[in-house]
Amino acid sequence: MDRLPDDHPDIVDCPDCVLPAEVLWRADLPSTDGPVPHVKIRCLARHWFLLPVAQLRGPRPGPARYQGA
Ligand SMILES: [Zn+2]
Predict the structure, then answer these.
(1) Structural domain that includes position 34
(2) What confidence score (pLDDT) does residue 18 get?
(3) Which of 26, 43, 49, 63 has the fewest C-beta atoms under 10 angstroms from its C-beta?
């Protein structure tokens, strides 16, 4: 199966709320420092963002906020 690369999870934290967000799309976008990997994400509250991968907040170790899912 041709899945997204493993360097980042498919589910990240929404930058605007506390809900999980799904990675919909990713691409390298040009910048003054060269190509920067970006992702498009959409959270359960239907916020969506196009932002650099470096700004993602992925699932964290430690106490889970989404227990019981
Ligand atoms: Zn959100």
Answers:
(1) 11-55
(2) 82
(3) 63
Give this prediction's pTM: 0.67
Is position 21 within any domain? yes
**pLDDT for 10-41, tens place per residue?**
899 999 998 999 999 999 999 999 999 999 99
Cα(19) to centroid(ligand 1), Å: 6
Structure tokens at 43: 């959270």
Question: At residue 62, does pLDDT exceed 70?
Answer: no
Q: Give the three-state DSSP class for 49.
A: strand
Q: Is residue 17 part of a domain?
A: yes
Residues around ion ligand 1, judged by CB within 5 A, are: 14, 16-17, 43, 45, 47
What is the largest distance, in Å, between two alpha-carbon atoms of the chain?
A: 44
Query: Which 3 state secondary structure label does DSSP give 43?
Result: strand
Ligand 1 centre distance from Cα of residue 32 (Å): 29
